[in-house]
Amino acid sequence: MTGSTPSAAATTTEDRPRRTGRSRLGRGTPTIDEGPRARFGELLPYLFEHSRVLWFIIGLSILGAAASLAQPLLVSQVISIVEAGDPLGTLVWGLIALVVVSGLISGYQHYLLQRTGEGVVLSSRRRLVRSMLHLPVSEFDARRTGDLVSRVGSDTTLLRAVLTQGLVEAVGGAVTFVGALIAMFIIDPVLLGLTVLVIAVSVVTVTLLAARIRVASARAQKKVGDLAASVERAISAVRTIRAAGATEREVRAIDENATGAWRMGVQVAKISALVVPVAGIAMQASFLVVLGVGGFRVASDAITIANLVAFILFLFMMIMPLGQAFGAITATNQALGALGRIQEIIGLPAEDAYDADIARSAAAPKTPASAQAAIEFEDVVFAYARPAVDTEKREGTAAPTPTGDRSVAAVDTAYTAAATDTADDEAGRSRRAPGDPVLRGVSFRAAPGTRTALVGPSGAGKSTVLGLIERFYDPASGVVRIDGVDVRSLPREELRARIGYVEQDAPVLAGTIRENLLLGNPTATDEQCIDVLHAVNLGDVLDRDPAGLDAPVGEDGIMLSGGERQRLAIARALVAAPPILLLDESTSSLDGVNEQKMRLAIDAVAEGRTLIVIAHRLSTVVDSDRIVVLEDGRVVGAGTHSELVESTPLYRELAKHQLLV
Ligand SMILES: Nc1ncnc2c1ncn2[C@@H]1O[C@H](COP(=O)(O)OP(=O)(O)OP(=O)(O)O)[C@@H](O)[C@H]1O
C-alpha cells in the first residue's frame, strides 16, 4: 500500500508500475506473469557508456574475421601448389602465423568483452540503486524487499551476457559471414544457392523461437524475484516463524517459489536447446549438400578440388557466426527481460525535492525562521492508497509482533472500552475501506520549544501524523506547516535536516554504534557521540564491549535490548542536533526500568527543541506541555493532562486504566 493524496494515490500506487511498464518498456501488453519487457533501444545507453572500448573490440573482431577469411584462401593455394609439385616456401609459415594471430586476437577480445560486460552490470546496478533509494516512501509500501534486492543482484547480471555471449562478436561474425558468402559466390554460385536455401529454413525457425525465449526469460526472472522475496520474508521474521512452529511451512512456501523459478529456467533451457540442434542440423545438411553436389561438380569439371575444399572451409566460416548470432539472440532476449525489471524501477519518478507550485504560491518565506520551530496541522485529510500490489508485503515482512506486553494490551483495552460511539479497535479499523481517509481533518499546533504528546488507540493515525511532517506522504487536503511555512514548499533535504525522526520499529541499522550515530551527522566527534549516549542513558553500552563506539549492534540491532535500541535511535537523531524531534515510542520494551530510562531520555532531549512524542503509555507523556488525543483520524481532545481528564472521556478512561487518576 502506498500513500499520498487520495487522488494521487489512485494513480501513484498499484497501477503505476504496470502502466509505466506498458508505456515505456514494452510493445504489446505485458501480463503480470511476464512482467515488463524492455525495448532494444533501452539497452543502448548501457552500451554507449563503453562505446570506445566497444568500437575497439569491434575493430579487433573485424581483424580476426579477416584473418580467418584469409585461411581458406591460403589452404586452397597450398593444395594447388602441392598438386603442381612446387615448393611451399613461406606460404605455410604465413598460414601458421595467421592461425596464431587470430587466436591471440580472439583471446584479448574475450577478455575485453568480459570486462566491459562487468562494466555494464556495474552501471546498471548504480543506476538502479540510485533510483531505488530515491523512490517515494510509498513505493516501498507496495513492493517486496526481496524482489527489489533480486533486481539489483540477479537481473543486472543478465545484462552482461549481451556482450559476453555474442552481440559484439556477432559484428565480427557478420563480417566473416558476408566475406565467406562473397567468396563462396565467386567460387560456385550454384553450390551457394543450395546452401543458402538450407540455412534460411533454420534462420526462420530460430527467429520464431527467440520471441518465446524472451517471454520465458522474463517470467523466469520474475520467479527469481518471488523467490528472493519469500526468503527475505522468512529471514526477517525468523524468530516469529520459529516460535510459531511455522518453519516447515515457510520452507515449503520457499520451495514452491524455488520450484517455480526452476520450472521457468527449464522452460528457457528447453527453448534455447531447440536452437542448438536447429543450428547443428542446418550445418550438417548444408555440409552434406555441398559434399554431394560438389562431388558431382568436380567430376563434371565445373569446379576444382582445391576450390571445393576452399568452399567447404568458407561454409564452416559462414555457419559459425550463425551459431554466434543465435547465441546473441538468446542472450539479448534474456537481457531484455531482465532490463524490463530494472527499467521499471529506474523509470519511476523520484521523490520530488519540493512542490514547486506550492513554493511559488506560498506567500510566507521559504525557510522557517526560528531555531525551535512550531509545527501546525490545519484541517489535514490523508488516505493511504488502496491495497498494495502484493499483499504478501504487509503480511509477510512485518516485524515480529511484540508478545506478552500486557501494559500495551491494557492501553488498547482502555481505549477500546472508552470508545463507545466510534469504532477504533482492530475490528473498527478493519471496517475502514482501503483508500478511506486515515486522518480526517486533523488540526493542532505544537508551539516552539514545547513537548507535545500524541495519544490514541492503535490505528488512530498517530504515526501517520509524523509521516506527514517528514513528508513521507502529502495530505489530500489541508496543510502541514513548520513555522508558518507549508512543508511542501521546502526542499525535502532542508526540511528533514531540521527534524530528528525516531521510528517505531527496527530503528537501529546493522553495523556499529558509531555507524548508527553518524548516520545523520557524519562529522560528529567521538566526544559528541559519547555525550548523546549518556544523555539517553546508554552510557553503559560503551563499557560492555572493549570496542566501545565500534561495538557491533547486529542485524537490526539484535545485540541490544528493545529499550536500548529505541534509545540508541534517539541518540542517533540527537547527534544531528535537530530543532524538531519526532519520537514514535515503541509499543514494546515498556517494562518499568526501561520506561523510567525512556522518560529520562525524553526529558534530556526535550530541552531546547520542539518535541512530538507518540506515547503508548501515558506515564511517559503525562507532564507534556500539550497532549493531543486522536481517535479514528480525528482530534477529540487537546490540552494538558489535567484538562483532558476533565474534558475528554476517551482520555479519562485511559488515564483511569493506567491508575493515574
Ligand atoms: N503504509 C501504509 N499503507 C496503508 N495503510 C497504512 C500504512 N500505514 C498505516 N496504515 C493504516 O493507517 C491507519 C493508521 O495507522 P497509524 O500507524 O498511523 O496508526 P497509529 O495510531 O500510529 O497506530 P499504533 O499506535 O498501532 O502505532 C491504520 O489503519 C493502518 O493500518
UniProtKB/TrEMBL annotation:
Keyword Cell inner membrane: yes
Residues covered by the ABC transporter domain: 422-657
PANTHER family: ATP-BINDING CASSETTE SUB-FAMILY B MEMBER 10, MITOCHONDRIAL, ATP-DEPENDENT PERMEASE MDL1, MITOCHONDRIAL
Gene3D superfamilies membership: ABC transporter type 1, transmembrane domain, P-loop containing nucleotide triphosphate hydrolases
TM annotation in the entry: 53-70, 90-108, 167-187, 193-213, 273-296, 302-320
Primary site of residence: membrane
Region (Disordered): 1-33, 419-442
Membrane topology: Multi-pass membrane protein
Annotated compartments: Cell inner membrane
Keyword S-adenosyl-L-methionine applies: no
GO function term, MF aspect, one: ATP binding
Recorded superkingdom: Bacteria
A Pfam family per the record: ABC_tran
A single cellular component GO annotation: plasma membrane
Domain ABC transmembrane type-1 positions: 55-334
This protein's name: ABC transporter ATP-binding protein
Family that this chain belongs to: Belongs to the ABC transporter superfamily. Siderophore-Fe(3+) uptake transporter (SIUT) (TC 3.A.1.21) family.
The organism of origin for this protein: Labedella populi
Keyword tags: ATP-binding, Cell inner membrane, Cell membrane, Membrane, Nucleotide-binding, Transmembrane, Transmembrane helix, Transport
